[in-house]
Design goal:
By secondary structure, this protein is mostly beta strands. It is 1% helix and 45% strand. The protein contains 1 helix and 35 strands. The protein has one helix at residues 346-349; strands at 11-12, 17-18, 26-30, 36-39, 48-54, 68-71, 75-80, 83-88, 98-101, 107-113, 116-121, 126-127, 136-139, 147-148, 154-157, 160-163, 169-172, 175-178, 185-188, 196-199, 212-215, 218-224, 230-237, 244-250, 261-266, 273-277, 280-284, 292-296, 306-311, 320-326, 329-335, 341-344, 362-369, 375-381, 386-394. The strands form 9 sheets. It has a 6-stranded antiparallel beta sheet with strand order 4-3-32-31-30-29. A hairpin with a 6-residue loop joins strand 18 and strand 19. The longest helix is centred in the C-terminal third of the chain and has 4 residues, at 346-349. Residues 1-46 have low confidence and may be disordered.
């Protein structure tokens, strides 16, 4: 059970609503049965604080939209269920967001690579013999215009056509790897002119696109396909990245049962890999060959967090933040010891977003760091169809 938190006063300025508070929660650690148990904990002051809410009051209409945030040398680009927005750097409480494209569109992810902005979005099928709503696009002029790079990913059937949609991309030199298609990984080395299948094929399926991560030439893949059959695998790619020296096979891991894998992230400059699953988090210390639980809630219980975001602050090398949603409320927890023990601070953050509501889930869709080390969290609050952009302050001294 999570601790209750008292109502905290709000400090207001002419520019924005300022939130300053100490986040205190339940420390979670791993037992021999991988369940999470609270223990006595004396919190330090100033570990994480929500210091401001950036002005973004637009209501969105898309029923299943998500959010993301990226930066180039001039702008911050914000994807919300209401569309793609842009604002000049630095990003602050005075920033004004301009809608530049894709209004009321489900945007999965944004990337900036070699100065170009890439967008992964939903493709809506249309009747006929040619798709018109592109799913993967690139902008070379800060989002003023977009060029589709998914021309080879069109699929038609039953009188309708659409482009295969990807929810993740990985940029390796001149190559781009995506997870479009049914249990598929596709790669291009000519900016989308052609695509090669590493796994699966060029077809849609009923399963969600599988998350993936690369450590050297080892590819780690996870998923939940068939439904409620969670898996995590790893294999070795060839030097040119266009094939395999070792095909993916099951990684060493505890029984996932129906815990589908939702995100996989490597800690920079290390062999540690983390996988967010339904109701828990897995950790590997050998580049994804073997995993163990470091967070594990009972499959049926009061809490069943779905971890979608794993963040590694640049200024705190031993800290990890895990975020997502838990039933109808958000989920936010952090570790100061490389993921071995965790403090759940969800109840302290939820009041600054809105009350939990069973009519719709609330999720932390991203935690991102700008070029100056400022950290921002994006929360989709479905009960009122609004998006909250919060600036977080991590006290670096507390994590040393």
């Amino acid at each position: 059970m999570l601790n209750n938190f008292p109502n905290l006063p709000l400090l207001r300025s002419d520019l924005c609503i300022i939130f300053i508070f100490v986040l205190v929660g339940t420390v979670l650690t791993q037992s021999p049965t991988t369940s999470l148990l609270p223990r006595n904990f004396k919190p330090k002051i100033g570990l994480i604080r929500v210091v401001s809410e950036l002005s973004f009051g637009r209501v969105f209409s898309h029923p299943n939209g998500s959010a993301d945030l990226v930066f180039d040398d001039s702008f911050a680009y914000l994807a919300t269920p209401g569309g793609l927005y842009r604002t000049p750097l630095p990003l602050s409480s005075q920033s004004s967001f301009e809608l530049i494209s894709f209004q009321d569109t489900n945007i999965f992810r944004l990337y900036v690579h070699r100065g170009s902005l890439y967008i992964l979005k939903e493709s809506v099928a249309n009747q006929g013999n040619a798709a018109t709503d592109h799913s993967i696009l690139r902008s070379d002029d800060h989002g003023s215009t977009f060029v589709p790079i998914d021309g080879a990913l069109q699929e038609c059937g039953s009188g309708f056509c659409e482009y295969l949609a990807a929810t993740e991309a990985l940029f390796v030199g001149r190559s781009i790897i995506i997870n479009a298609g049914y249990n598929s990984l596709l790669i291009t080395d000519d900016n989308g002119g052609s695509w090669t299948s590493l796994l699966g094929g060029f077809h849609r399926g009923l399963c969600a696109a599988q998350p993936f991560e690369l450590v050297g030439h080892r590819m780690i893949i996870g998923g939940d396909c068939p439904l409620e059959s969670g898996f995590i695998e790893s294999g070795i790619l060839t030097t040119d990245m266009l094939g395999w020296t070792m095909l993916p096979k099951a990684a060493g891991s505890p029984d996932l049962n129906d815990r589908g894998v939702w995100t996989i992230r490597r800690k920079p400059n290390s062999t540690d890999v983390y996988a967010g699953v339904f109701g828990g988090l897995l950790k590997s210390t050998d580049s994804g060959q073997n995993f163990r639980f470091v967070i594990s809630y009972p499959i049926v219980g009061v809490s069943d967090p779905l971890i979608q975001t794993i963040f590694f602050p640049s200024h705190a090398p031993n800290m990890i933040v895990a975020a997502g949603r838990d039933s109808s409320q958000l989920f936010l927890a952090y570790s100061k010891d490389n993921g071995e023990t965790w403090l759940d601070i969800s109840p302290a953050v939820q009041p600054f977003v809105g009350a939990p509501d069973n009519t719709g889930s609330t999720s932390v869709d991203f935690i991102k760091e700008d070029p100056n080390g400022n950290i921002f969290a994006g929360v989709v609050y479905n009960p009122t169809k609004t998006f909250k952009l919060l600036q977080l302050n991590f006290n670096a001294a507390a994590f040393r």
